[in-house]
Amino acid sequence: MTPSTGTGRRGRKTAGPAPEEAMFRSIVDAIADRRLPPGTRLVEEQLAEAFGVSRARVRRVLLRLAEGRIVSIQRNRGAVVARPSVREAREVFQARRLIEREVVRLLAAGGGRMQPEAADRLRRHLAQEAQAVGSGDRAAAIRLSGRFHLLLAELSGQGVLTGLLETLIRRSSLAIAAHEAPHAPDCDAEEHKRIAQALDAGDAEAAERLMIDHLEEVERRLDLVAGGGEPIDLRRIFGRSLAPDPA
Amino acid sequence: MTPSTGTGRRGRKTAGPAPEEAMFRSIVDAIADRRLPPGTRLVEEQLAEAFGVSRARVRRVLLRLAEGRIVSIQRNRGAVVARPSVREAREVFQARRLIEREVVRLLAAGGGRMQPEAADRLRRHLAQEAQAVGSGDRAAAIRLSGRFHLLLAELSGQGVLTGLLETLIRRSSLAIAAHEAPHAPDCDAEEHKRIAQALDAGDAEAAERLMIDHLEEVERRLDLVAGGGEPIDLRRIFGRSLAPDPA
DNA sequence: TCCATGGCGATTGTGCACAATGCATGGGGG
DNA sequence: CCCCCATGCATTGTGCACAATCGCCATGGA
What we know:
The structure is a homodimer. The first copy, chain A, contains 10 helices and 3 strands, in the order H-E-H-H-E-E-H-H-H-H-H-H-H. By secondary structure, chain A is mainly α. Chain A has a 3-stranded antiparallel β-sheet. In chain A, a hairpin with a 3-residue loop joins strand 2 and strand 3. The longest helix of chain A is centred in the middle third of the chain and has 24 residues. The termini of chain A are far apart. The N terminus and C terminus of chain A are likely disordered. At the A-B interface, helix 3, helix 4 and helix 7 of A face helix 3, helix 4 and helix 7 of B.
C-alpha cells in the first residue's frame, strides 16, 4: 500500500540508477550509525517495502554491499550485516594508515601549501563537522567524520586512491560498530581540525604524524581483543546456544 | 577453453556461485590477454550463450566487473570493456607502488627471512612462470605475472591489502591493454625472479627498490601520452562488426 | 527426558515475457 | 548533394510468478 512508490504509472517508468545509490548510502549510513548492528538480517522483501522499490533492485544493492565486504551473503540464507574479524579490523586500519599517509604527503608536498579552493572546502567541512558535534547530531557527526578523510583524498587529486579509501572507510565504520568498546564517536573532530591546520600551514611532517596518530587513536579506541572472531556464523549463536570455545 | 563446467546442463536447477566466478575470471583473463580490447561490447545474450548460463547470471557478472572498473555500463546501452584514461592508468600504478612497497617491506621485515613455506610457494610459482615464458604461452605468462604480485601480497599475510591489490592488478592489466606501445608482456619474469631472490636473502632494501623499479618499468613501457582519452565511444569507430568470439 | 524424523512456513534463486530505450537505416525535402 | 526526420531492429531494464532450499517446530519413539 505504498502511495505511488511502485513505479510511476505514466511518469518515468525507468527510475535510473539513482534509487540504488540512495539505498546503498542509506544502508551504509545505518550500519555506521549502529542502527544496523553486525549480524542483522537484511531481508529482501522488507527492504523492498521499506524503500519502495522492487526486490530486484534490493538484490543489486545487497550484491554491491557484499562486494564491499559490508554485508555477507550466504546461499539461500540471505544477507546479514557482516561481522569483520579482529584481524580484518586491524588490517583495514593498517591499510588506511598506508593510504592516508600518502594522501597527506601529497597534499602537503603540493607546492608547500594547499590550493586556496581546497583549503576553503576543507574549512567549510570542518565547520559542518563542528556544528554536527555541537548540536549533538551523532549520525551526522559519524557521517561527516568519514567524509573528512574522503575529502582529503579527493583534494589530493588521486581518484584511484580515493576509491580504495572509500571502501576502507566503510569497512572501518563497520569494524567500529562491531568492536566498539563503549560507544565513542568514530573520529574526534578536534583531531581533524589539527590535521587541517598542519596542512594549511604546509607542515608536511606534522600533518603526516597527526594523521597516523589519529588513525591509531581510533583503532586503539576499539575493543580488539578476541570477541568477534572470524569463523562465526553468529546466527547460530543467537539461534542456538552452542558456545564455540570461549578460551 | 570453454568455461563449460560440469554444470553446463540446464538440468541442474541451482548451479551455485561457481559459474559466476569462473565467468568472471574468464572475462578478466580475456581482457588482460587482449582478446577483449577496450571498447568491446559485451552483449548479455551473447555472453549467456557463450557460457551456457542465463542472462541474469551474466548481468551479475557484468555488474561486478563494472564495480571493479573493468567494464563500464551505460544505461540502456549495455556494457563495454572500459577504457581507462591515461590519468587513471598512472594513478593505478601509483597506488600499486604504494601497496606493493608495503607488501615487500612486510615480507622482508618478517624476521629477516621469509618463512620456508612461503619461499617454497614463491619458488614453485617462479618455475611455473618461467615455463610459461619458455613455452611461449603468452596467455599463461600474463596470468601468472599478475599472480606473482598477488602471491607476494598473500604471503605478507595482509588479506585486506591483497584484496585491494587484486582490483588494482586487474585494472593495470586493462590499462596495459589500453595503452600498450608494442605488445610487450605485462611483466618481465626475470625481474620477478630478482625480487624473489632479494626477499629470500632477507635484503629488505634491495627487494623494495627492485619492486619499485619493476613497477615503474612496467608503467614506462606504456604509451601514456594522450591517445586513449576517456570520452571515446569508439564503438562508433568500428561500427558493429565486433565478434567477441575467441574462436 | 532426550533424540531422530517429517512436515511447514518463510525466504531466496531463477526463468520468462514484455516494455522501454537507443541506434542504425532509409526516405523525403531543401 | 546534403541534411533531417520517421520507422524498424536489436538490446537492455523490469516485474512477475514459480520452484528450490533452509530453518523451525511438532510429533513419535527409545
